[in-house]
Amino acid sequence: MSVVPPSALGEPCVLLKLGEVVLKGRNRELFERQLQANIKAALKGFGVKVDVRQRHGVIAILLPEGTGVETADAIAERLTDVIGLVWVHRAWRVAKNPEAVTAAALELVAGRPEVERRATFAVRSRRRDKRFPLRSNELDRMVGGEINDKYGLPVRLKNPELTVNIEVDRDEVFVFTDGLPGQGGLPVGTSGRGLVLMSGGIDSPVAAYRMLRRGLQVDFLHFSGIPFTTSESIYKAYALVRALSKFQGNARLFVVPFGKAQQSLKASGADRLQVVAQRRLMLKTAEEVAHRLRRNVLVTGDSLGQVSSQTLQNITALDDAVELPILRPLIGMDKTEIMAEARRIGTLQISELPDEDCCTLLTPRRAETAAKIADLRQIEKRLDAEELAVQLADSIQEYKLDGTPAAVRRSPKAADAPNAADAAPAADDAPAVDAAPAAPAAV
Ligand code: ATP
Ligand code: MG
């Protein structure tokens, strides 16, 4: 038994541990199906035909025979971004008998740096198939004894430096050492569809990520100060949405040229209410766009008290602007916490690039911290804000994330849309983001 054949490790595969999905009751299957679809979508780019097998509490990704270790490692790495998984293990799939398992475990340990430094180790077995001839603790002892005999590593059950995991499944046994932490959360697409108001700042991408992790599938709406600002904020929104696309496929980015509407607000005497009035008009426009796209919730990156537009009274005034619910996942978070999360998910660097945000246009010297809803409504009445929101929604342009020009999908008033070329950022004034948006098209 201690003779290790060269193929003792069997086939490389990836074993996934599910998060909250396992707590689901009757509709668990629905969550599992969505998760499987998301996994397959995430792996499309690899050109490898994967076999996704749902087992009790885990998913096994079986790879075609002959798949190299490097490809298997890359697939595991990619799956750490798929929401709904708590652990991703690059495992080996071996025949379902104690001898094969022991041989695989020995070979797995052989290549480890812990052997040379005589690190402590433990074997942890688990049987999902109780028909296996050895019980978990018997398997632990048997494999542990062999590793100890062969390499002289001391066993330590509490906090070992190296853990050999053995999981006995229905058709095979999985053997692996470390794992990569996953994103946790619920599979994207299991909680409906929303529209994120995406600025170029730090908060909104984190808000989007937080909602993705609760299963919401999202599209993005960005308001640019065009024609009074450059296109930089569009580039940032585009780069941010692209950065988030590793967590969710098929997201769409829409951009509203908002500068002229901001000017109209100012002309109608918004004064100290300019910022809150702008935010209300953004929400009204977003609501109209959401209806057209069949999205039933809006998401913003508001955090209570962060800036003057986000006092409790102002947030209440924002809620009054629309009927759709507004989700604010960052409402109780500190800026430092939000920044740490932005760094972890890879959006901070992009958000910190300089840009001309539309919100800084026409900002009054002293902004109102306790906006009265009646005053805001009066400004909006003078302006016919509802009609303006419809016009703004008519003028949205989609920026395709895959680099192809956006298809014109629905264009009731396409003729009113500004010339795409006016808004399309020119390649040479692009900030240092990794991809430039394709030319937009009216939607
Ligand atoms: P930061 O606070 O880091 O600048 P932010 O995204 O939170 O970024 P705020 O000015 O605090 O920006 O705006 C609060 C929220 O309003 C944003 O999280 C976003 O949801 C929405 N918002 C603000 N400006 C825009 C914009 N130009 N386009 C789309 N949404 C916006
Ligand atoms: Mg903010």
TrEMBL record:
Sequence ranges assigned to domain THUMP in this UniProt record: 73-179
Main location: cytoplasm
Keyword terms, alphabetized: ATP-binding, Cytoplasm, Nucleotide-binding, RNA-binding, Thiamine biosynthesis, Transferase, tRNA-binding
EC number, as in UniProt: 2.8.1.4
GO MF term (any one): tRNA-uracil-4 sulfurtransferase activity
Binding-site residues for ATP, renumbered to this chain: L197, M198, H222, F223, R279, G301, Q310
Low complexity: bias regions: 414-443
Cell location: Cytoplasm
Pfam families: ThiI (PF02568), ThiI_fer (PF22025), THUMP (PF02926)
Enzyme type, top EC level: transferase
Keyword ATP-binding: yes
Pathway(s) the chain acts in: Cofactor biosynthesis; thiamine diphosphate biosynthesis
Region (Disordered): 404-443
Swiss-Prot/TrEMBL catalytic activity: [ThiS sulfur-carrier protein]-C-terminal Gly-Gly-AMP + S-sulfanyl-L-cysteinyl-[cysteine desulfurase] + AH2 = [ThiS sulfur-carrier protein]-C-terminal-Gly-aminoethanethioate + L-cysteinyl-[cysteine desulfurase] + A + AMP + 2 H(+); [ThiI sulfur-carrier protein]-S-sulfanyl-L-cysteine + a uridine in tRNA + 2 reduced [2Fe-2S]-[ferredoxin] + ATP + H(+) = [ThiI sulfur-carrier protein]-L-cysteine + a 4-thiouridine in tRNA + 2 oxidized [2Fe-2S]-[ferredoxin] + AMP + diphosphate
Function: Catalyzes the ATP-dependent transfer of a sulfur to tRNA to produce 4-thiouridine in position 8 of tRNAs, which functions as a near-UV photosensor. Also catalyzes the transfer of sulfur to the sulfur carrier protein ThiS, forming ThiS-thiocarboxylate. This is a step in the synthesis of thiazole, in the thiamine biosynthesis pathway. The sulfur is donated as persulfide by IscS.
PANTHER family given in the database record: TRNA SULFURTRANSFERASE
Family according to the record: Belongs to the ThiI family.
NCBIfam families for the chain: tRNA uracil 4-sulfurtransferase ThiI
The protein, known as: Probable tRNA sulfurtransferase
